[in-house]
Design brief:
Blueprint (H helix, E strand, L loop, with lengths): L2 H24 L8 E16 L4 E5 L7 E2 L4 E5 L2 H51 L4 H48 L1 E3 L4 E6 L6 E2 L4 E17 L1 H4 L7 E6 L6 E14 L13 E9 L1 H6 L9 E7 L30
Antiparallel strand pairs: 1-8, 1-12, 2-4, 2-7, 3-6, 4-5, 6-8, 8-11, 9-10, 9-12, 10-11
Helix pairs in contact: 2-3
Amino acid sequence: MAPRQIAVGALTILIVIAGFFYWNSRNSDTLPDGIAAGNGRIEAAQVDIATKFAGRVHRVPVREGDLVDPGQVVAEIEISQLRAQLHRAEAEVASAQSRVAAAKAQVTMSKAQLSLAEQELNRTASLLDRGHATQESYDIRLTERTVAMSNVASATANLTAAERGVDAAQAAVEEIETQIQDSVLTSPVLGRVLYRLAEPGEVLPAGGKVMTVVDHGDIFMEVFLPSSQAHLVTVGSEARVKLDISEFGIPATVSFVSPDSQFTPKQVETRTERDKLMFRVKVRIVPGLVRHNIERVKTGLRGVAYVPLDGWPEPDWSTLLPPLPPEALPDEALSDGT
């Protein structure tokens, strides 16, 4: 083999070796000291929107995949039967109010009779003192006053019962009105409809699910860290999330660190030998960032969360992850979610 060919071959080998070491250094799993990392996936709470009482579904104005705002109407339950019950309850209120009026009249009449009985008793007592009336007539007047007092007490009790009847009838009206209000189902969160579980015309039992909404107000990733790292992670500290489909570092904060350890889930992959026990850590994406990119938010995407154990090392290791492009950042400051 000619010396020139040998030199070219050696140079080729050196280039291959240099390229391997360069690639290995760029793709090394080794992290700087003070940084913890764990793999996971983007998650969000799923909210089941269900009926409070049995009824027929009247309409469902949203579809699977639609983005819904808090308070937006997502379904309505038929209320024709409730309207009839409301009319009957309102009639009961009017009837109870009439009984109150009659009871008040009875109280007034009983008090008048008591006043007359007391006057008759006083006159008879005066005549008895002067010897112009008998003891028997006095006893009769005394008995009449006692009966009149009992009539007043009875009439007052009847009035109280009638007034409580009005309260009960009014409560029945309010209960039915609440059911009518509850027949309009609204989304409690900002999110996307994941499943539409009922269609117009279907009869649902109490608690029947109409749809499931993915809550985009709290987008997070759960990772599992060994005790040697988990005890150094503080709630509220900054973090970064890097998705497998992207090279950018997504701003996040640590929102939860489990106080108890647990067995390592099967899907957790550690860079070293697997620990028997791990601590669950939740990293929450900055809410302002989520709202600004609401149409791009997808749950289930896998990636890695990077968490500083005592602040980002110097130089700021978080800058090694490329920042998000300007169009992905909200106009307002992102401090509202940190």
